[in-house]
Design goal:
96 residues, mainly alpha, 0% strand
């Protein structure tokens, strides 16, 4: 059994060396470079950046919900406003 495993390891090593020395390795490098170049032109973010922004958005939504609830509470307590279309009172001048 040991010889069989050793033979497989030897075969894998020879295949690896053959691929490294073949045009297939150059094609792989070129394709990889092409893909990297194409991906760099896209407006992408890393997963870590995405997760960070998702957390910021979640906190912002929660804060907006709290502020909306607080505003509704304050509006519920506010005295009714007078006629909103009424003319404002004229400004008062200096006392004479």
């Amino acid at each position: 059994m040991l010889n069989f495993n050793q033979a497989l390891d030897d075969l894998a090593a020879r295949i690896g060396k053959a691929i490294e020395n073949s045009p297939a390795k150059d094609i792989e490098k070129n394709v990889k470079a092409l893909l990297q170049s194409g991906l760099m032109r896209l407006d992408l973010v890393t997963r870590a950046e995405f997760d960070t922004q998702a957390q910021v958005l979640l906190r912002t939504r929660e804060k907006i919900e709290r502020l909306e609830a607080r505003l509704a509470e304050l509006e519920g307590r506010a005295p009714p406003t007078a006629n909103l279309h009424a003319q404002p009172a004229p400004p008062m001048g200096p006392a004479e």
